[in-house]
Recover the amino acids of this structure.
């Protein structure tokens, strides 16, 4: 038995907002693959649960008329991994979703949970950072849109106000159009492991084969997922090639601040961060058509 | 104050109803209310796959799936694979033939993941089979034989090389 004080299942988004207004301290539960584990380990007890797991209206991926990609917050990793629109337009997100846990975890875990838990290692979060995702929140005051960089406040804490739930993760058209990306998860095992470090890179080349825009985000390089802005600026306008990849990586490691933990030392994480930046940009440039 | 809820669902093709504590996991409900003891409780935290069942055709670790979420769903366990007189299905027989069962604790979970693979009708490579089974731990470490059993059954069902 899980340690709930009470349980309420929302019947719709409005109903979830109403239930959260009634119980301001309630814990929102999507797939529960973080929340239920915390109850088992007694990090959470006697909680009022508001389950949103039944809200099918928050499942699925839609290409909007303006070209934005809207991912419902309850969409599972496996549905993201295999979605046609994602694979055609943002395959890097399919790649990231496919590295989470194992098949059963990918069936229960949601992108909403992965971005609301505020966890730095979350496998889809760095790609959402690298794609400048917009977080959609719905609460009693209406709907808000927050750029993902501003959504993360500190480790384990995101900008969700009382009565709000996250309803979608939106990838704007300009953010993915003509962009090619690559996601890498460095972990000790090929499956069922949390990232020691993860890195999502994407690039857009111009007609002359020079870098028009390169973006890089890391997980576990700081308390929350983060972009490495100096790396992005350093290669802007450079011709695609090996030099760019090394300049990119040299700058990237100056932006990050990983820590020592039982999983890995700070020095090792910096080493990995450099290598993943080189490989990430190289592979992204290749996917964009460059010969390197 | 304990809260109960009625759950209507289909289990192994039969329409069922149970009154469950809202704090119960699907594994609790399947074992305690329906005596489906093929559903094993190993780690209880989603790490080992011993409690894996199919819910509407997808694999879920029932130890971290709430019983009340099963309302309206179709659930399948290993008990639903056998024939009317207890005849074993091809995948169960293959586990025996390949020596893929040692203590047997992980077996039902593996078999339900195998069912998802087999019923997709797709031909998986050996690496894809490994990836599809990566949410299961076998403490007796019989992985090679398990993969052999799944691969051979897949090939037999799809026709072609064994
Ligand atoms: C065995 C195992 C392996 C795992 N492996 C990985 C891994 O490799 N990589 C990885 O990134 N994660 C992993 N996880 C963690 C977990 O599966 C993911 O973080 C997942 O995305 C959580 O989603 P959920 O829907 O289950 O979240 P829940 O547990 O339901 O919620 C997580 C948090 O987000 C909040 N929340 C969820 N949805 C919303 C919403 N729509 N609006 C507002 N708040 C919300 C909840 O209140 C809670 O604080 C693993 C977990 C397990 C048990
Ligand atoms: S008992 Fe459910 S995954 Fe281990
Ligand atoms: S056969 Fe013993 S755990 Fe797998």
């Amino acid at each position: 038995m899980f340690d709930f004080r009470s349980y309420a299942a929302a019947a719709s988004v409005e109903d979830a907002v109403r239930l959260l207004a009634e119980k301001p301290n309630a814990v929102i539960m999507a797939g529960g693959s973080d929340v239920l584990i915390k109850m088992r380990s007694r990090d959470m007890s006697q909680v009022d649960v508001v389950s949103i797991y039944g809200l099918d209206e928050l499942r699925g991926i839609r290409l909007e008329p303006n070209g934005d990609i809207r991912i419902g917050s309850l969409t599972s990793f496996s549905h993201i991994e295999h979605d046609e629109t994602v694979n055609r337009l943002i395959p890097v997100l399919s790649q990231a979703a496919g590295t989470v846990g194992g098949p059963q975890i990918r069936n229960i875990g949601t992108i909403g949970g992965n971005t609301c838990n505020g966890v730095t290692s979350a496998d889809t979060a760095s790609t959402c950072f690298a794609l400048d995702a917009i977080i959609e929140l719905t609460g009693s005051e209406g709907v808000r849109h927050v750029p993902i960089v501003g959504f993360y406040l500190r480790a384990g804490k995101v900008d969700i106000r009382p009565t709000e739930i996250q309803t979608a993760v939106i990838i704007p058209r300009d953010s993915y159009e003509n962009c090619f990306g690559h996601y890498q998860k460095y972990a000790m095992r090929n499956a069922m492991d949390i990232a020691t470090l993860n890195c999502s890179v994407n690039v857009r080349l111009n007609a002359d084969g020079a870098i028009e825009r390169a973006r890089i985000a890391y997980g576990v390089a700081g308390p929350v997922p983060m972009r490495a802005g100096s790396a992005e600026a350093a290669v802007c306008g450079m011709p695609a090639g090996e030099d760019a990849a090394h300049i990119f990586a040299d700058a990237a490691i100056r932006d990050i601040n990983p820590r020592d933990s039982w999983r890995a030392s700070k020095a090792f994480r910096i080493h990995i961060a450099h290598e993943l930046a080189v490989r990430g940009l190289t592979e992204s440039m290749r996917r964009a058509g460059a010969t390197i | 104050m304990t809260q109960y809820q009625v759950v209507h669902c289909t289990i192994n093709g039969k329409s069922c109803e149970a009154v469950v504590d809202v704090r119960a996991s699907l594994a609790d409900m399947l074992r305690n209310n329906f005596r489906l003891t093929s559903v094993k409780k190993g780690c209880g935290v989603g790490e080992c796959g011993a409690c894996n069942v199919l819910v509407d055709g997808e694999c879920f670790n029932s130890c971290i799936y709430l019983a009340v979420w099963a309302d309206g769903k179709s659930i399948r366990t290993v008990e639903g694979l056998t024939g009317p007189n207890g005849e074993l299905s091809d995948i169960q027989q293959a586990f025996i033939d390949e020596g893929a069962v040692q203590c047997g604790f992980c077996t039902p979970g593996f078999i339900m993941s195998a069912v998802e693979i087999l019923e997709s009708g797709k031909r998986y490579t050996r690496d894809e089979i490994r990836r599809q089974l990566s949410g299961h731990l076998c403490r007796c470490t019989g992985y090679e034989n398990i993969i052999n059993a799944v691969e051979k059954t897949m090939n037999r069902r799809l026709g072609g090389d064994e």
About this structure: The two ends of chain A are 56 Å apart (CA to CA). Residues B 41-44, 46-51, 61, 63 surround FE2/S2 (inorganic) cluster (ligand 2) (CB under 6 Å). Chain A touches chain B at residues 1-4, 6-7, 9, 32-33, 36-37, 40-41, 51, 53-54, 78, 101-105, 107-108, 190-192 (CB under 8 Å).
